[in-house]
Design goal:
3 domains, Beta-Lactamase, five-stranded antiparallel β-sheet, 17 strands, Alpha-Beta Plaits, binds guanosine-5'-triphosphate, six-stranded mixed β-sheet, elongated, alpha+beta, 14 helices
């Protein structure tokens, strides 16, 4: 056989074995050649089993094919692409709708090529999917105390439904494509914390937190936020998560009293050492996975014994409560506050470097200094000293961080009180104010 004959034979074999229907036609639709798959696909549309012209065979489902060809004046190219044809397979006694996809190519002035594919299964799957989506949307639209949404691997909101608008008051354009902490009160999250929760959901199956959320008009509501991964086999960037925000304002009090009993200091209401060390441990665990700054400030009221001695113990208590209130006002929600004991307090600042922590500590010192407390008609001026440290230079746990901040606090007291010192890896210490 010549090489040309070999090639021709290979082409015929290809046509014969191809898993899609291939039909070679003349410009008026006359069939020159067709493979077995196309014969099978077109069979339900033939009249009396005759299959000589494709345009005639498809006239019931695509009546304009002849006109499309006539209107296509380019020397070659795609006349139509994946045209969806719907027809009845005609099984006696059964209404059996099938779907074909048709692409028509102009090869040259005398020949066309039709590519046919049975897409019935695909269309059925699409129908089921869209029915499920409509069903899910109907459920979501009816929900009033939950907001359910899909978020991507960067924590950006990907879809919108009425439940989100109803619970939060935000509009679609203000939420789509935004980080999910848009619903949280300012300071209740950081970019690191945003992705930490996605990772936690991956590792543990879910991530559940009670968070202070905000509506579009700024009003706060206490909510439980649940993130669960929506499993897919694709790459990490294709991962999706479901976020459910549930208004639990009614359960807040019960939850809070349980929490307070175990985790809060009885006098100031601030988290106690147990709560603080648990949160600090979690932050250091996260830091091991994704390195980041963690800073710590230790505050100590100055000459507090004198305040007790001069104004009495209840006045001393009022000063400690005032100090706690100002800490709540001064630091972000994402910062962990704690009464370590006596007149010593701590603030753990996630994703915060030494300079930013120093600035926060100094701001707080000035605030305390500038506003005395009034108790029982007495104006009590007091001050605090502070020690600041960060997790640079091989600090990998909270104990070491406390040791450093404590060393800086000691220095602040030694240098005369009412000032902030920082632990510095080169000079060991630096005085700020
Ligand atoms: N009112 C009140 N006083 C407390 C409480 N806990 C500890 N104290 C008092 O805080 C005082 C701490 O005194 P010191 O440790 O000598 O420290 P200081 O007087 O603040 O002096 P410097 O820290 O060196 O500035 C003690 O008198 C404690 O009794 C509390 O819950 N309420």
């Amino acid at each position: 056989m010549t090489r040309l004959e070999d090639e021709y034979e290979a082409l015929i074999q290809f046509l014969y074995l191809a898993p899609v229907g291939l039909v070679q036609l003349e410009h008026d639709g006359g069939i020159m050649m067709l493979n077995p798959v196309s014969a099978q696909l077109l069979m339900p549309m033939t009249q009396n089993g005759e299959l000589t012209n494709l345009f005639d065979a498809l006239s019931g489902v695509a009546p304009d094919l002849r006109q499309r060809c006539a209107a296509f004046t380019a020397p070659h190219g795609r006349i139509c692409d994946a045209l969806r044809l719907q027809f009845s397979a005609g099984t006696p006694g059964k209404k059996d709708t099938q779907f074909l996809s048709l692409s028509l190519l102009k090869l040259d002035d005398s020949r066309l090529m039709a590519v046919l594919e049975d897409i019935t299964g695909q269309v059925r799957r699409e129908e089921i999917l869209s029915r499920n989506k409509a069903w899910l949307n109907a459920i979501l639209a009816g929900i009033s105390d939950y907001a359910v949404m899909s978020i991507n691997s960067e924590g950006l909101v990907e879809d919108w439904n009425d439940s989100i608008g109803r619970l939060t008051g935000w509009g679609e354009g203000e939420i789509l494509g935004q980080p999910y902490d848009r619903f949280f009160m300012p300071g209740a999250s950081t970019p690191d914390a945003l992705t930490d929760r996605l990772r936690e959901a991956e590792d543990c199956g879910w991530s559940l937190r009670e968070v202070q959320c905000r509506r579009h008009d700024g009003t706060p509501f206490f909510a439980s936020t649940l993130i669960v991964p929506v499993h897919s086999a694709g790459p990490t960037s294709d991962r999706r998560y479901c976020l459910v925000i549930r208004n639990i304002a009614d359960k807040k009090e019960a939850l809070e009293s349980q929490f307070k009993a175990a985790y809060c200091d009885y006098l100031t209401g601030l988290p106690n050492r147990r709560a603080f060390f648990e949160e600090a441990q979690r932050e250091f665990d996260r830091m091991q996975i994704v390195p980041r700054h963690i800073s710590l400030i230790l505050f100590d009221a100055d000459n507090f014994k004198r305040i007790n001695d001069r104004y009495g113990h209840p006045a001393g208590d009022a000063v400690l409560c005032d100090l706690a209130d100002r800490m709540r006002q001064s630091f972000r929600m994402v910062d962990s506050l704690c009464r370590m004991g006596g007149e010593e307090f701590a603030v753990l600042l996630p994703s915060t470097d030494l300079d930013a922590a120093l600035a926060g500590a100094e701001r707080f010192r000035q605030l305390v200094e500038s506003q005395p407390v009034t108790f029982d008609g007495e104006v009590i001026a007091y001050s605090v000293s502070g020690g600041v440290a960060t997790n640079e230079a091989g600090c990998i746990d909270i104990d070491e961080l406390i040791k450093r901040a404590d060393r800086a606090l000691y220095e602040a007291k030694q240098k005369g009180r009412n000032r902030i010192c920082a632990w510095d890896q080169r000079t060991e210490l630096k005085v700020v104010a």
